[in-house]
Predict the 3D structure of the following.
Amino acid sequence: MLVVWKLDRLGRSLHHLVKTVSMLSERGVGLKVLTGQGAQIDTTTAAGRLSFDIFAALAEFESELIRERTMAGLQAARARGRKGGRKFALSKSQVRMAQAAMASRDTSVSELCKELGVKPVTLYRYVDPNGNLRDYGKRVLTA
């Protein structure tokens, strides 16, 4: 038997807790909670297993509701013309300039980065060393 002071000491989330308890029960290990909201839980008894399963079902239901509400909110925002996500570090004109500069062999990457106000890692995210567009660069130009 595994004895826990409070139920939240055993898992990071209820989903994690349910997985942990099911793994314990597969090994023949019971769970007993001493204090807190789940103080009457003792999975070695039928009543304890029932109460834990009810908690797990309610948590899964709540998680599904949150997921549905989040998806509905994102869909409503898209319908209003809002887009989520981080803004691009470079504008279309900056990507074109970086593309032309990187195609030239005599371009200094550090100077180009200073001019654009980005770090080399960011520059290479948009354009490769030969001046060809990468996925980020293509996405900026099509946006």
